[in-house]
Amino acid sequence: MIRCLIVDDEQHALDILLHYIGQTPLLQLVASTTNPLEALQIVATQKVDLIFLDIQMPELSGIDFVRSINGKSKVILTTAYSEFALEGYDLDVVDYLLKPIRLPRFLAAVQKAATALNNAAAEPVKEQPVDDYIFVKTESKGKLLKINLADIDYIEGMKNYIAIYAGGKKILVYSAMKDIEERLPARQFIRVHKSFIIAIDRITGIEGNRVLLKGITAEIVAGENYKPELMKIVKGKMI
C-alpha cells in the first residue's frame, strides 16, 4: 500500500482526489488538508509515501513545500496552470497533473509513483544522517516551530498537549506522547514514564525511581513498565 496525503486549498479539488483515492486499492489515505502548514506537520510526524500537492496556495506554495520536505516523500503536483510544470520537474517530482484531473491520468501518475517507490526500495540501503531537529505545531494557529534535538532536556505529557523543555524554555505542542516518541531517535531519547521522555545524555544519576537530569530540578520518575529499558542503558555504562 502507498500511504498518501492530499494538500490542496480548494475543497472541490481535494474532494475529487479523495474520490479517486477511494477507487484505487493501491492507495491508503493518511490525511487530507487545505492547510500546507498542517501538511508539513503530518509529513514530519507520520509515514507518508506520496503527496498529491497543489502548487498555488496562499500560505506556502507547493514548490516551496517540496523544497522544505527535502525528498522525504514522493510528490505529484496538481494545478490548473501548465506553466509551472517545468519548475516542478526540476524538483524531481513524480508527475504533474493538470486540473481538471481525469481518472485515467490520475491512475497513470499513481503507477509512476509506485514504480519510483519500488525502485527506491530496491536500492541498497545507505546510512542516513540522523535528523538533528524537528518541527512542531504550537498553540498559535498555523505556526510551526523548529526545535533542535540537542536542546531538548525532557518532554512531559499534558492531556491533549505535550510540553517540550528545551534551552531553558517550555514549549507547548499539540501532539500525543506516542507521536513525538516515534519521531525522536531512540539512541538519543528514552521514554521513562507514560508522562515523560528524557534526553539520554542529560541523565546524571538514578535514585530509586527518580531520574536525575543535568540542570533540571523537576521531579521525573521512571514508571514500572519503562524502568527496565532505562536500566539496560545504565548497566551498559556501569564499571
Task: Briefly characterize the structure.
Helices cover 31% and strands 31% of the residues.
CATH superfamily of the largest domain: Response regulator
The name of the CATH topology of the largest domain is: Rossmann fold
What's the CATH class label of the largest domain? Alpha Beta
What percent of the residues sit in helical stretches (DSSP H or I)? Answer: 25-40%
**Radius of gyration from CA coordinates:** 21 Å
Describe it for me?
- This protein is an alpha/beta fold and 239 residues long.
- The protein has 2 domains: 2-122, 3-Layer(aba) Sandwich (Rossmann fold), CATH 3.40.50; 147-236, LytTr DNA-binding domain (OB fold (Dihydrolipoamide Acetyltransferase, E2P)).
- It contains 7 helices and 14 strands.
- The chain has helices at 11-22, 36-45, 62-69, 85-90, 103-122, 177-183, 227-236, and strands at 2-7, 27-33, 50-54, 74-79, 95-98, 133-137, 144-148, 152-158, 161-166, 169-173, 189-193, 196-199, 203-207, 210-213.
- The strands form 4 sheets. Strands 2-1-3-4-5 form a 5-stranded parallel beta sheet, sandwiched between helices.
- Strand 6 and strand 7 (144-148) form a beta hairpin.
- Helix 2 packs parallel to helix 3 (62-69).
- The radius of gyration is 21 Å and the shape is elongated.
- 28% of the residues are buried.
- It comes from Paraflavitalea soli.
- InterPro entries: CheY-like_superfamily, LytR-like, LytTR_DNA-bd_dom, Sig_transdc_resp-reg_receiver.
- Residues 139-207 form the HTH LytTR-type domain.
- Pfam families: LytTR, Response_reg.
- Residues 3-114 form the Response regulatory domain.
